[in-house]
Amino acid sequence: xxxxxxxxxxxxxxxxxxxxxxxxxxxxxxxxxxxxxxxxxxxxxxxxxxxxxxxxxxxxxxxxxxxxxxxxxxxxxxxxxxxxxxxxxxxxxxxxxxxxxxxxxxxxxxxxxxxxxxxxxxxxxxxxxxxxxxxxxxxxxxxxxxxxxxxxxxxxxxxxxxxxxxxxxxxxxxxxxxxxxxxxxxxxxxxxxxxxxxxxxxxxxxxxxxxxxxxxxxxxxxxxxxxxxxxxxxxxxxxxxxxxxxxxxxxxxxxxxxxxxxxxxxxxxxxxxxxxxxxxxxxxxxxxxxxxxxxxxxxxxxxxxxxxxxxxxxxxxxxxxxxxxxxxxxxxxxxxx
Length: 337
Description:
This protein is α/β, with parallel strands linked by helices. The chain is built from 10 helices and 17 strands.
């Protein structure tokens, strides 16, 4: 893949992962073009940054100047634009391949898991940001602190949400991996849970021996590694909470290392997410005070236990949860409040 890209086209530019990559190229000074079927807030923000976006599935004359085409597997094979590029000589790569090429150039922290990866990767990114460590971050959701799914920095640290769909995460080159959960999901791709577990094992096998795996205690037995392994969990693992409180939107907890934390972001499951993020931050040298102050100011991710409004006795929370495990965590957290 040619690192000197002057004109890049995104087929499906409005996707959450695609739009983060588009932001990356825009901020590199690259000319960005793209197609999506629907105009959204994300595509309008990209247009404001300078991207030229079409909402018609038609070929255009300027396609001849392109150096690179990035596409998402979500694009239907009947797409006119997609088929034009397939038959052209313009280098064409999946989003995961392009992200993988970027990760090879960085000290990459890859956050994976059937649930929780968006929140954990966003937490990690904000902890670095708050500690004035300028990381690059490719996120699968819109951070409430940044109001973006991409964070630009001039350090070699890169935080990436590692997507297991279509085995995309196998394109990455991580130095540190976080795995929050392994559940039966994307069975249209994998068929069985055993195949899902094997894909996560293949992902962990990408770690160098001097790398680190931070993994939830409940699934640690499923994955083997020659790298350093640290387990975490709400009440079990190398790093866990010994007490916590989520009542009345008071997300506070004390860990088995006697460190106390308090978050504005609520949800029992988000305490677990924070435990993973804390371990990454410690691994990269952040102090307890830096982490505690960052967590206290972390506003969360839009549509992930997002407190939208309160009207008297009524509270409106927006959440993306759709898998049974995610719905269970959401309901338990609401009952705790």
